[in-house]
Write a structure and sequence with these properties.
The protein is of the alpha/beta class. It has one domain: Alpha-Beta Barrel (TIM Barrel). Helix content is 41%, strand content 15%. The chain has ten helices and eight strands. The chain has an eight-stranded parallel beta barrel with strand order 1-2-3-4-5-6-7-8, surrounded by seven helices. Helix 9 links the parallel strand 7 and strand 8. Helix 1 packs across helix 10, helix 5 crosses helix 7 and helix 9 packs parallel to helix 10. Bound molecules: 1,3-dihydroxyacetonephosphate. 1,3-dihydroxyacetonephosphate (13P) binds next to strand 8. It is found in: Cytoplasm. It is an enzyme of class 5 (isomerase).
Length: 253
């Protein structure tokens, strides 16, 4: 549900999916829908393709659709084979970067301290950092969801974070790609807790956008977006189809 003075964000995380052809057809589909809708939606739209397709994506969209990376390195440059600096993302026209996704925490052993360092680098490069947090199924079953999310938030926040350069995404690990979602009450409890933490830790924490992610589909988007302190969605699978992602973006209001 809307938080005063906060524009929702509909963000598509393509993960390791896509091709040149798919980038072209998906972004054509989104820009055409946006044009038909009069040029803008209640929500800001963001797409985060894999690194090889970022430049093509930026060339295809006009400024009403933002493009972001899925990771960056904490250092500005140097001997880090395979990594990408935040300034490089900004240099080609990215405005956002997703950090600390649970798949990176698992696949690459990323700690919250590393996520905080990456977020600090993103802010220096004038990118908005989308910091992902979320509990595993075992942690939820043990009643530790709020505790885990709190620890991740507190440890991942960069010192200079503010509502203008920070977004938090709550993504329960067990809801990602599974078709399962928490109950509205459970989402409300976690988002409410995150809001409290943000208010405590940041001067304008009441204005930071908090996204929900994990099996968001056109069929459940409106219900999820109506929950207090849900200010948009971070969408995986359903962001790979223009029709589905558009329907979700329209529900982010
Ligand atoms: O991980 C996610 C987005 O970052 C969510 O993925 P799904 O929407 O495929 O569940």
């Amino acid at each position: 549900m809307s938080t005063p003075n906060v524009r929702p964000l509909a963000a598509g995380n393509w993960k390791m999916n896509g091709s040149s052809e798919m980038t072209l057809s998906l972004l054509k589909g989104l820009t055409e829908r946006l044009k038909s809708a009069g040029g803008s939606l209640a929500a800001e739209i963001l797409v985060c393709p894999p690194f090889p397709y970022l430049a093509a994506a930026i060339a295809l969209v006009d400024k009403d659709i933002a493009v972001g990376g899925q990771d960056c390195h904490p250092k500005a440059s140097g001997a880090h084979t395979g990594d990408v600096a935040a300034a490089m993302l900004a240099d080609i026209g990215c405005r956002y970067v997703i950090l600390g996704h649970s798949e990176r925490r698992t696949d690459h052993g990323e700690s919250s301290a590393e996520v905080a360092a990456k977020a600090a680098a993103a802010l220096v490069a004038k990118l908005t950092a989308i910091i992902c947090v979320g509990e595993t199924e075992a942690e939820r079953d043990r009643g530790e969801a709020l505790k885990i999310v709190e620890k991740q938030i507190v440890e991942s926040l960069p010192p200079a974070g503010s509502a203008s350069n920070l977004v938090i995404a709550y993504e329960p690990v067990w809801a990602i790609g599974t078709g399962r979602t928490p109950t509205s009450d459970d989402v409300a409890a976690v988002h409410g807790h995150i809001r409290k933490l943000l208010r405590t830790n940041l001067a304008d924490g009441g204005q930071v956008r908090i996204l929900y992610g994990g099996s968001v589909k056109p069929a459940n988007a409106a219900e999820l977006m109506a929950i207090p302190d849900v200010n948009g969605a971070l969408v995986g699978g359903a962001s790979l189809k223009a029709e589905d992602f558009w329907a979700i973006a329209e529900a982010c209001r």
